């Protein structure tokens, strides 16, 4: 299936999708004013070693990975909207506490809460997009757009923080808490609008079918009765959605998932060898990328790179701006390639960036920026394509479970600070990035064998 980028596709986005986009912009912008600088804060405030800083960052992230899988699978059963509200409240509480943390133990606890909220929110949003947008090409564009707007926030956040004098200041986390409070209010409005729209559509369908039944005569009584039964089910479903505040696609997903037991879900995931290989490959890929957020910053900090805060802000800004300026262009240019081929091209660029980082001189400011440019182009190809890949693999009634399983990608992010810190302490920065290049070669191989791996027979897991 090829990608389609057009204004007509954008016009198909429901209001709720635009709320997701705006909310992602304001939350990511405030988040990136300070989160990337946590390694610097921990080093300067508590004089921790690279391994100790990595352990603090990794311990929080590892716990969140398993929380994400359980929570995302649960969303298919209790409803994504309720879980999104709870996750948003957790965001507000955890980021408010992070703004006041003043001990290593406090940072560990509160960062764990923040990481749990983040790892829950991402797959919930991706699965919710699948619920509200039925057309696969429009859904792919929606996911690409979400990734795009997140990076707009990442670009604006650090630069706005520098301009306001907030970059790297712990108190800036209050801004993230406020941003999520605004987003929750918008989601409440958006969910209610979606519910009213669904009920109106169901009522319209019922009215049309009743009119057709009245004029069709007795010859089609059997068929009309069947249609009316279906419409009555839909209309009743619409009323229930109005009571519970759930959209039509979400409710349908819940009903299907409710008849598939947790034991069956686990059995499906264990039989899907293609999914398991994909998860392992993407864990490695995320491990490589996460070095930019943690180990690269640690390396530059401890090595005494000139103009450190300016360099870090510049790399974050460059990363986001490259993605913003190239994402839809690359999507157009690579539309003719299959998903796996796109990912392999991105991985080749990732190898080049890791080799560049490994041999760049410490005081060569624009050398670091150049390596980040190449790495960012690779990221632009890889990250949104990974989400689309999972969306196409997932059965409709198990979308939450599959996106939850995909959240194990975050193990790469979780282990990167600790493993990267150990490599920095014992071998140095050059070996860290050469390791990343070698792992990228392994990921290319894993993607090349995906089509040969078995998948489960989903027909065996039908409702009784």
Question: How would you portray this structure in words?
Answer:
The chain has two domains: 191 residues, MFS general substrate transporter like domains (Growth Hormone, Chain: A), CATH 1.20.1250; 204 residues, MFS general substrate transporter like domains (Growth Hormone, Chain: A, Up-down Bundle). It is an all-alpha fold. Helix 2 runs parallel beside helix 7, helix 4 runs antiparallel to helix 18 and helix 14 crosses helix 16. The two termini are 33 Å apart. Keywords: Cell membrane, Membrane, Transmembrane, Transmembrane helix, Transport.
Cα-based radius of gyration, to the nearest Å: 24 Å
From the N-terminal CA to the C-terminal CA, the straight-line distance is 33 Å
Give the H and E element order.
Answer: HHHHHHHHHHHHHHHHHHH
Low-confidence stretches: 216-259
Shape: globular
The CATH first-level class of the largest domain comes to Mainly Alpha
Name given to the CATH homologous superfamily of the largest domain: MFS general substrate transporter like domains
User: What fraction, in percent, of the residue positions are helical?
Assistant: over 70%
Most strands sheet: none
> What oligomeric state is this?
single chain
The name of the CATH architecture of the largest domain is Up-down Bundle
The overall strand count is 0
The CATH topology label of the largest domain is Growth Hormone, Chain: A
Indicate the mean pLDDT: 79
Q: Tally the helices: what do you get? A: 19
| SS-derived structural category | mainly alpha
Integer count of domains: 2
Determine the strand fraction and express it as a percent band. under 5%
